TrEMBL record:
Protein species of origin: Halobellus salinus
Name of the featured protein: CobQ/CobB/MinD/ParA nucleotide binding domain-containing protein
GO cellular component, one term: cytosol
Residue ranges of domain CobQ/CobB/MinD/ParA nucleotide binding in the record: 2-153
Span list, region Disordered: 46-77
One Pfam family in the UniProt entry: CbiA
GO MF terms, alphabetically ordered: ATP binding; ATP hydrolysis activity
GO BP annotations listed: negative regulation of cell division
UniProt cross-references to Gene3D superfamilies, sorted A to Z: P-loop containing nucleotide triphosphate hydrolases
Biased composition (Pro residues): 49-61
Amino acid sequence: MLAIAGGKGGSGKTTTTLGLARAIDGPTLAVDADCDLPNLHALAGVPRDCPPNGPGHPDPTAPSETRVVPAPRDLPEGLGDRLRHLRAHDSHLALVDCPAGAGPDATVPLRIADRALLVSTACVAGLRDAAKTAAMARAVGTSVVGAVVTRARIAPPGVDDLLGCPVVATVPDAPDPLADPDVRGAYQRLARTLRHQPKT
């Protein structure tokens, strides 16, 4: 299970979750863990509701092995159980779109995931918040495998040092990112990079 995490809303976590899930060669789940501001289902074009421990909805514009699991409508207290169930009973690689911020809701998926991938725009405030997210992940024992800088062709200097991990992808800005060939190419390269990383 890979947590797609970052400190700020609007940094590109949801787009990265779905874009990477579609780019990975093999069965994937794109899971929305943001109960307060869920939007993964809308981005993917699937219904908001699904059975509590169901397999999610087939992604209508991706390979049949990609499924989308909307955030539960109940309070976030049930989120941990849902993520543990998916981790234990589903053979798909789960990519979890984490809530922004540093509160308990953001900590739950970080604690359950095997690894975390940071997502931030290139702005200073966003990168500082991503560094706080990295510290949260490490505090609960989850390794941070890298960072994705969105809406940028190159990463600003010093980002690796600030976040304590390598920048493994940059994703260019686009009006309709998941339909843009350059953005899709960036997520395909990211998928290959993560596939060749040693498991930690």
